[in-house]
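== Sequence entry ==
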Amino acid sequence: MQQEKSFYREHFAGLIIFCCLALIILSMIGIQVLDVKVINVEGVDRGLYTVITQKGPVNVEPNDVLRIERTYTKAAITGTSVELDKIYTTKGFIYASSIDSYHENISQLMNSVDFDGLPTWERENTTWQSVQPYAFAIGTPEQKIPWLFFLLSLQYFMLSIGGITLAILVFPFHWKESKEEKTGKRPSQPHDQDYCAEEQLSAVAK
């Protein structure tokens, strides 16, 4: 009976984990479909830039920039240092690297607000939470933005459910095994103790 319950529990937990993985994969595919890539960035006028995306051009100026994140990595083949930039604006974020052909204009846009080249720059009275409503690729159609946030929320939720289910599936068995090991140690029986006492008395008598 206990083995049957354990089998059903494992089967049910495995089904939940499989469903979570399937939904995570589907959400990742959906996010990739909704993603909008930057094709070029052009300097139109003093302080005005046009970001050309797959869905059309978007004008950006320094006042639109809310947060800048600079990270550095190395190219896989050459090993040269590559700068990765993520610029949060009121019209979405721009993701670029130093090997992009338009990175010079991206640098000019960033330097127009961040004069020190900080790894993370934020506009005054701006926090990480306040830029989250703009955490979508610039150029994303307005009607698709709610779908994008829905897929992101679904992905995080499925990751949480899958992780909790896996923890419930794995850890109780270790706890049960350790408990059985502790209870499996048979305490010494009274007649064993009496036998030992008799042996000691006979040894003393001799």
Q: What stands out?
A: Residues 145-184 form the longest helix (40 residues). The helical segments are 2-34, 103-111, 145-184, 190-205. The CA atoms of residues 24 and 155 lie 5 Å apart. The chain is about 50% helix and 25% strand.
